[in-house]
Design a protein that fits this description.
Layout: H1 2-31, H2 39-57, H3 60-84, H4 89-108, E1 122-123, H5 133-137, E2 139-140, H6 142-160, H7 162-172, H8 174-179, H9 184-210, H10 222-232, H11 237-259, H12 266-270, H13 272-285, H14 288-294
Antiparallel strand pairs: 1-2
């Protein structure tokens, strides 16, 4: 029974990791005052980029780096549209998602069915051999450890550094930040690129570790769940960690329910992660004052250097 529980918890960690990467990246973007709904498109492009780079080079490190680069490249297109051309952020983000899904299907058509040796767990000497806790906490692949490190890094950056304070100031009032001499557009551009790179790594984890293969639209809505996680966490990195593991648990729970042979429609069980997302958002939206209090005040607003809009 213990082995089954440990195995379940390990799979929850794997299911939560891509959500954690994508949500942390989007959190930084939104903290700068920009809403990017293109997370899904950047994730799926990161998945095919990481898979293709690893297949051709034989290097998993190059695969992850390639996924991060493509994610950032996709994000730069979005940044140009909303920061330079001042396009609508919602429409641009949706267009980015549609573009990413379509382009990944086109690029990845030749990789369907191609085998890949995915990321192996990295045993930590002296800790991985511990009973129960060793297998649970110290026997994961490198991207799992990186995702946990990124939670602390993002928290530290936003709350303990001058650059993080400036980023949050831009997200709260871009006009005030501009008046103080801060380059609002460049700060937001950097935040968007970071969010894109994180979404790309999230996609790479899907195709290189979670299910080492490529299939069309393999992100399967995880980008939208990551967006919901940011609101669920009220724009706080440590709460993103909790939310990612909760949603990861829901994803794995539906698989175990199906495996146990419980007489419930598989289609209904497959809906559970997305149904949970809707329920959480409905519950959060009931406390509108709290959401407004925690959300960056300039979120989604277009910045004009000539004045407030």
């Amino acid at each position: 029974m213990t082995d089954v529980l440990i195995a379940m918890l390990i799979t929850i960690v794997s299911a939560a990791t891509p959500l954690l990467f994508a949500a942390l990246g989007e959190l930084v973007v939104e903290k700068s005052g920009v809403l990017n709904l293109g997370v899904e498109g950047m994730m799926v492009m990161g998945a095919i980029a990481g898979f293709a780079a690893t297949t051709h080079s034989g290097s998993l490190a190059l695969g992850v780096a390639g996924a991060a680069f493509i994610g950032a490249l996709m994000a730069s297109v979005f940044a140009f549209l909303v920061l330079v051309l001042m396009a609508n952020q919602v429409a641009s983000g949706l267009a980015l998602t549609l573009f990413g899904i379509g382009l990944s299907a086109l690029v990845g058509s030749s990789f369907v069915g191609t085998p890949l040796d995915g990321l192996d767990p990295v045993a930590i000497p002296g800790l991985s051999g511990l009973p129960v806790i060793g297998r649970l906490l110290f026997n994961h692949d490198v991207l799992v450890y990186l995702s946990l490190g990124m939670v602390l890094a993002v928290w530290w950056f936003l709350n303990r550094t001058r650059a993080g304070l400036i980023l949050r100031a831009v997200g709260e009032s871009h006009d005030s930040a501009h008046a103080l001499g801060y380059p609002v557009v460049w700060i937001r551009f950097a935040a968007i690129l970071f969010g894109g790179a994180m979404a790309g790594i999230a996609g790479a984890y899907l195709s290189m570790a979670y299910t080492p293969m490529w299939s069309e639209n393999m992100s399967a809505g995880r980008g939208w769940i990551a967006l919901a996680l940011v609101v669920f966490a009220t724009w706080r990195p440590l709460r993103v960690l909790v939310g990612a593991y909760l949603f990861g648990g829901v994803t794995i729970a539906q698989l175990h329910i199906q495996g146990a042979g419980i007489d419930v429609s598989s289609q209904l069980l497959s809906m559970l992660p997305y149904l949970a997302t809707i329920v959480v958002l409905v519950i959060i939206s009931r406390d509108g004052a709290r959401v407004r209090l925690n959300a960056p005040a300039s979120l989604g607003r277009i910045f004009h250097s000539s004045g407030s809009k």
